[in-house]
What we know:
With 140 residues, the protein is mainly beta. 14% of the residues lie in helices and 50% in strands. It contains one helix and nine strands; from the N terminus they run H-E-E-E-E-E-E-E-E-E. The protein has an eight-stranded antiparallel barrel. Strand 1 and strand 2 form a beta hairpin. It is globular. It starts with a helix and ends with a strand.
Amino acid sequence: MKNRIKLFALLLSLGLFSISCNSDDNEGETLAPLSGKWNVSQVGTLVDGQEILIDAPQNESGCNKDYLDLKSDNTLEEGDYDSTLAPCAIYTKQGIYSRSHNNLTTAVEGVSTTKDIMNLTLTELKLKDADDAIIVYVRN
Length: 140
Protein backbone atom coordinates (compact mmCIF):
# COMPACT_ATOMS: atom_id res chain seq x y z
CA MET A 1 0.00 0.00 0.00
CA LYS A 2 2.85 2.41 0.87
CA ASN A 3 4.45 1.69 -2.50
CA ARG A 4 1.22 2.59 -4.33
CA ILE A 5 0.96 5.88 -2.42
CA LYS A 6 4.61 6.68 -3.17
CA LEU A 7 4.09 5.78 -6.84
CA PHE A 8 0.95 7.95 -7.01
CA ALA A 9 2.77 10.87 -5.36
CA LEU A 10 5.69 10.49 -7.78
CA LEU A 11 3.41 10.41 -10.84
CA LEU A 12 1.46 13.41 -9.56
CA SER A 13 4.69 15.35 -8.98
CA LEU A 14 5.98 14.51 -12.46
CA GLY A 15 2.66 15.55 -14.01
CA LEU A 16 2.66 18.88 -12.20
CA PHE A 17 6.30 19.46 -13.10
CA SER A 18 5.67 18.81 -16.80
CA ILE A 19 2.70 21.21 -16.80
CA SER A 20 4.70 23.96 -15.10
CA CYS A 21 7.54 23.56 -17.62
CA ASN A 22 5.27 23.55 -20.65
CA SER A 23 6.27 26.18 -23.21
CA ASP A 24 3.88 29.06 -23.74
CA ASP A 25 2.36 29.09 -27.24
CA ASN A 26 1.92 32.87 -26.97
CA GLU A 27 5.59 33.58 -26.28
CA GLY A 28 6.45 37.02 -27.62
CA GLU A 29 2.84 37.63 -28.64
CA THR A 30 0.97 40.63 -27.37
CA LEU A 31 -2.49 39.91 -26.05
CA ALA A 32 -4.05 43.33 -26.69
CA PRO A 33 -7.33 43.04 -28.62
CA LEU A 34 -6.90 43.11 -32.38
CA SER A 35 -10.52 43.64 -33.32
CA GLY A 36 -11.72 47.20 -33.76
CA LYS A 37 -11.61 50.06 -36.22
CA TRP A 38 -8.06 51.21 -36.96
CA ASN A 39 -7.35 54.48 -38.82
CA VAL A 40 -4.31 54.73 -41.09
CA SER A 41 -1.83 57.08 -39.41
CA GLN A 42 1.64 56.59 -40.88
CA VAL A 43 3.41 54.59 -43.57
CA GLY A 44 7.05 53.86 -44.15
CA THR A 45 9.76 51.28 -44.46
CA LEU A 46 12.83 49.84 -42.80
CA VAL A 47 16.17 51.22 -44.00
CA ASP A 48 19.25 49.57 -42.54
CA GLY A 49 17.12 48.35 -39.64
CA GLN A 50 15.74 51.82 -38.88
CA GLU A 51 12.07 52.73 -39.28
CA ILE A 52 11.39 55.66 -41.60
CA LEU A 53 7.76 56.76 -41.14
CA ILE A 54 5.74 59.64 -42.60
CA ASP A 55 2.14 60.77 -42.22
CA ALA A 56 -0.02 58.61 -44.48
CA PRO A 57 -0.31 60.42 -47.84
CA GLN A 58 -3.40 58.37 -48.74
CA ASN A 59 -5.37 60.28 -46.10
CA GLU A 60 -6.90 63.15 -48.06
CA SER A 61 -7.07 66.54 -46.43
CA GLY A 62 -10.58 67.33 -45.22
CA CYS A 63 -11.72 63.68 -45.33
CA ASN A 64 -11.89 61.02 -42.68
CA LYS A 65 -8.84 58.76 -42.51
CA ASP A 66 -8.66 55.52 -44.43
CA TYR A 67 -9.27 52.59 -42.11
CA LEU A 68 -9.12 48.88 -41.43
CA ASP A 69 -12.06 47.54 -39.43
CA LEU A 70 -11.25 44.12 -37.94
CA LYS A 71 -14.48 42.63 -36.62
CA SER A 72 -14.75 40.03 -33.86
CA ASP A 73 -16.20 37.45 -36.31
CA ASN A 74 -12.92 37.57 -38.32
CA THR A 75 -14.40 39.61 -41.15
CA LEU A 76 -12.88 42.92 -42.15
CA GLU A 77 -13.68 46.09 -44.01
CA GLU A 78 -11.11 48.33 -45.65
CA GLY A 79 -12.26 51.92 -46.11
CA ASP A 80 -10.63 54.28 -48.61
CA TYR A 81 -11.70 57.92 -48.88
CA ASP A 82 -11.10 59.32 -52.35
CA SER A 83 -12.13 62.65 -53.88
CA THR A 84 -11.43 61.74 -57.51
CA LEU A 85 -15.13 61.39 -58.45
CA ALA A 86 -16.84 63.07 -55.50
CA PRO A 87 -15.54 64.89 -52.42
CA CYS A 88 -14.52 62.41 -49.70
CA ALA A 89 -16.33 59.47 -51.31
CA ILE A 90 -15.88 56.25 -49.33
CA TYR A 91 -14.96 53.03 -51.12
CA THR A 92 -14.98 49.83 -49.12
CA LYS A 93 -13.76 46.28 -49.62
CA GLN A 94 -14.84 43.30 -47.55
CA GLY A 95 -12.72 40.34 -46.57
CA ILE A 96 -11.63 38.04 -43.79
CA TYR A 97 -8.63 37.91 -41.49
CA SER A 98 -6.87 35.56 -39.11
CA ARG A 99 -4.14 35.93 -36.56
CA SER A 100 -1.43 33.39 -35.88
CA HIS A 101 0.92 34.51 -33.12
CA ASN A 102 2.37 37.80 -34.41
CA ASN A 103 1.15 37.47 -37.99
CA LEU A 104 -2.00 38.98 -39.46
CA THR A 105 -3.29 37.35 -42.63
CA THR A 106 -5.99 39.10 -44.65
CA ALA A 107 -7.91 37.94 -47.70
CA VAL A 108 -9.62 40.72 -49.67
CA GLU A 109 -11.04 40.25 -53.16
CA GLY A 110 -9.16 36.98 -53.63
CA VAL A 111 -5.77 38.38 -52.59
CA SER A 112 -4.22 36.94 -49.43
CA THR A 113 -1.56 38.92 -47.57
CA THR A 114 0.38 38.11 -44.41
CA LYS A 115 2.02 40.87 -42.37
CA ASP A 116 4.07 40.83 -39.18
CA ILE A 117 2.48 42.53 -36.19
CA MET A 118 5.37 44.76 -35.07
CA ASN A 119 3.39 46.46 -32.32
CA LEU A 120 -0.10 46.03 -30.92
CA THR A 121 -1.33 48.11 -28.01
CA LEU A 122 -4.74 49.38 -27.05
CA THR A 123 -4.17 52.41 -29.30
CA GLU A 124 -1.66 51.36 -32.01
CA LEU A 125 -1.33 48.57 -34.56
CA LYS A 126 1.91 48.51 -36.57
CA LEU A 127 2.23 46.03 -39.45
CA LYS A 128 5.17 45.16 -41.72
CA ASP A 129 5.00 43.16 -44.93
CA ALA A 130 7.64 40.94 -46.53
CA ASP A 131 9.08 43.93 -48.42
CA ASP A 132 9.61 45.84 -45.13
CA ALA A 133 6.77 48.26 -45.92
CA ILE A 134 5.26 49.49 -42.64
CA ILE A 135 1.79 50.83 -41.95
CA VAL A 136 0.77 52.27 -38.60
CA TYR A 137 -2.87 52.38 -37.52
CA VAL A 138 -4.39 54.11 -34.51
CA ARG A 139 -7.56 52.86 -32.88
CA ASN A 140 -10.64 54.89 -33.74
